[in-house]
UniProtKB/TrEMBL annotation:
Origin: domain of life: Bacteria
Record-given protein name: Nitrate ABC transporter ATP-binding protein
Source organism: Nesterenkonia cremea
InterPro entries: AAA+_ATPase, ABC_SmlMolc_Importer, ABC_transporter-like_ATP-bd, ABC_transporter-like_CS, P-loop_NTPase
Nucleotide-binding in keyword set: yes
One annotated GO molecular function: ATP binding
Cross-referenced PROSITE patterns: ABC_TRANSPORTER_1 (PS00211), ABC_TRANSPORTER_2 (PS50893)
Keyword set, alphabetical order: ATP-binding, Nucleotide-binding, Transport
ABC transporter domain ranges (all copies): 10-239
Keyword Transmembrane: no
Pfam families with a match to the protein in the record: ABC_tran (PF00005)
Length: 258
C-alpha cells in the first residue's frame, strides 16, 4: 500500500487560544508548517498547550486568533480528512473489531462491498485480521490501539492526530507500537501530529520535534521554544550517541527555565 496524491500540508499561523475574553491566554504565537507525510512530535510539560493544538487542527475547537489550514483551506470544523487517535482507544465496546473499523466508511455512505474491502485492507495493515470478530474487551491494550488506528485510517484521512496514543501501554508493547506506526506511516503516507510526554518516543518516531513551554500555570502563554530536526534516518538506535545526544538536548530545552 502506498500513498498516491501527496496531500496533508498543515499550516498554523499566529495561533492563540483563550477560553474567554477575560481569561489568560492558554497559548499564543504558535507557528508551524507540517509537510505532507511528515510526522511532527510535540513535547512539553503538562499545560503548555500540546493537546490544544491537536484539538484546533481537528476542528473540535477554534483558535481565538490566527489561522489553521489544511492544503490551503482554512479549518473551521471537524472533517474526515483528519482522524484522531486517543490514549483511551475510544472504541465502541458493543461493536466487533471489524464493525469498529467499518463504522466511519458506513457513516459516509460507502457501499457494503467497498466497506468490506476497506476493512480487510486496514485490518491487514495493522495485523488484526484473525481477531476481526472479537470485541474490544477481549483484546490487549496494544491490539485495541491497533484497532483505533485502523478505524481512523479506514476513513482515508490526510492527517492523523495522535494524543499520547501509547501512554497507557507497557514498555514492550509501546516499543512494538512505535515500530508499527513507523511502518504504517511509510506505507500510507499520512501526515501525523503526535503529542507525547516521552522525549525518547519523539526522537524515535518524528521527522521534527516541536518543544513547547509556558502555559497558564507558568503565568505565560504556551508557545514554541524550539523546533528540532531529527536527521537519524529510518532505522533508529536509541543506544547510539547521535540518538542520546538529541534526546538529552531536547530534554534540556523542555526543562529549561522560561
Amino acid at each position: 500500500m502506498t500513498a498516491s496524491v501527496k496531500t496533508g500540508a498543515i499550516s498554523i499561523r499566529g495561533v492563540g487560544k483563550r477560553y474567554s475574553e477575560d481569561a489568560p491566554w492558554a497559548m499564543r504565537g504558535f507557528d508551524l508548517e507540517a509537510a505532507p507525510g511528515e510526522l511532527v512530535a510535540i513535547v512539553g510539560a503538562s499545560g503548555c498547550g500540546k493537546s490544544t493544538v491537536l484539538r484546533m487542527v481537528s476542528g473540535f475547537e477554534g483558535p481565538t486568533e490566527g489561522e489553521i489550514s489544511l492544503d490551503g483551506a482554512p479549518i473551521k470544523a471537524p472533517g474526515p480528512d483528519r482522524g484522531f487517535v486517543f490514549q483511551d482507544y475510544g472504541l465502541f465496546p458493543w461493536l466487533t473489531v471489524a464493525e469498529n473499523v467499518e463504522f466511519g466508511p458506513k457513516q459516509a455512505g460507502l457501499g457494503r462491498a467497498a466497506r468490506r474491502e476497506r476493512v480487510q485492507e486496514y485490518l491487514e495493515l495493522v495485523g488484526l485480521t484473525r481477531v476481526r470478530a472479537s470485541y474490544p474487551h477481549q483484546l490487549s491494550g496494544g491490539m485495541q490501539q491497533r484497532v483505533a488506528i485502523a478505524r481512523v485510517l479506514a476513513n482515508k484521512p490526510t492527517v492523523m492526530l495522535m494524543d499520547e496514543p501509547f501512554g497507557a501501554l507497557d514498555a514492550l508493547t509501546r516499543e512494538q507500537m512505535q515500530a508499527d506506526l513507523a511502518d504504517i506511516r511509510r506505507r500510507v503516507g499520512t501526515t501525523v501530529l503526535f503529542v507525547t510526554h516521552s522525549i525518547e518516543e519523539a526522537v524515535q518516531l518524528a521527522d521534527r520535534v516541536v518543544i513547547m513551554t509556558g502555559g497558564m500555570s507558568h503565568g505565560v502563554p504556551g508557545h514554541i521554544r524550539r523546533i528540532v530536526d531529527i536527521e537519524l534516518g529510518e532505522e533508529r538506535d536509541p543506544t547510539s550517541t547521535a540518538f542520546t545526544d538529541l534526546e538529552r538536548a531536547i530534554s534540556e530545552e523542555v526543562h529549561a527555565k522560561l
